[in-house]
Amino acid sequence: MRKDFMRRAVFLCMTSLFLSAAFSAVAALPLPRFRPAVLGSGPDSVVNQIDAQALLKKGQKEGAIMFCCRVATTGNVVWYTTYLPVPGSDLLEEEVRKRLDNARLAPAIYEHKPVEVLFYGTAFFSVADGKPKLHIFANQEAAELKAANDFIGPQPVIGADSKFTGLHYPRERMTVFVKGLVRLALKVDATGNLQELRAVSEEPSFLGFAQAAITDFTGAKFIPAFRDGDPVESSVELPVFYELE
């Protein structure tokens, strides 16, 4: 009986040492060079908080809304805005904004360290055979969205060696504060370097929104775009929405 006790004690001791070594090895694994912020699959994920069936009962039909949110190194959303809704998307927009208030994403990694980023997403709501469907994509590219590709758009980094510090409303040119939308054409290489930057359009014109966007993004570093799980070079047209907070 004493021998059995000793065998069990030795077995438990060896098992404990093995598990401890295994967990230590996992903990010692370095973070990847780049990882975009993603919605994740936990209970705090935006997509898991939205009750599609409840939206349908409230009267939401086909709809879509774009959004941008600032994601902290903890994954918490610390700021957000929504824009460019498809007509008839009021309920969807209200629900997305409500859920972003308490959302948590998987945080971004830049040069092996957690960083703050801007996450650009598009939420689609559809009804097929009387059943609601909700899809949220991590990009705002028309062709990518139409094809439902596994594509995550480039995400501007806040901090590290990036000169991007967020969006700054051009107050000095305003007598009446209005909302503004700038479409920026960006080319970002597979290591997050900004290669090209130009304003394609601004609405309304001549109020300084285009120049504000160029100034905000000049010198920015990015989490590169990811396609099918790998970082890639990308050319995107990014809607940049300005409103006075």
What does this structure look like?
- The protein has a single domain, classed as TolA/TonB C-terminal domain (2-Layer Sandwich), CATH 3.30.2420.
- The strands form 3 sheets. Strands 1, 2, 3, 4, 5, 6, 8 and 11 form an 8-stranded antiparallel sheet that branches. Strands 7-12-13 form a 3-stranded antiparallel sheet, with no helix packed on it.
- It is an alpha+beta fold and 245 residues long.
- The protein contains 6 helices and 14 strands.
Protein topology:
Layout: H1 2-27, E1 34-35, H2 46-49, H3 52-58, E2 63-71, E3 77-83, H4 90-100, E4 108-110, E5 113-128, E6 131-137, H5 142-147, E7 151-152, E8 155-158, E9 180-188, E10 194-203, H6 209-217, E11 222-223, E12 225-227, E13 230-232, E14 234-242
Antiparallel strand pairs: 1-4, 2-3, 2-5, 4-5, 5-6, 5-8, 7-12, 8-11, 9-10, 9-14, 12-13
Features:
alpha+beta; TolA/TonB C-terminal domain; eight-stranded antiparallel beta sheet; three-stranded antiparallel beta sheet; 14 strands
Number of helices: 6
The Rg value, from CA coordinates, equals 22 Å
The helical percent reads 25-40%
Q: What is the global morphology?
A: globular
CATH architecture heading:
2-Layer Sandwich
Strand content: 35-45%
CATH superfamily assignment?
A: TonB
Largest sheet: 8 strands, antiparallel
Structural class: alpha+beta
Oligomer: single chain
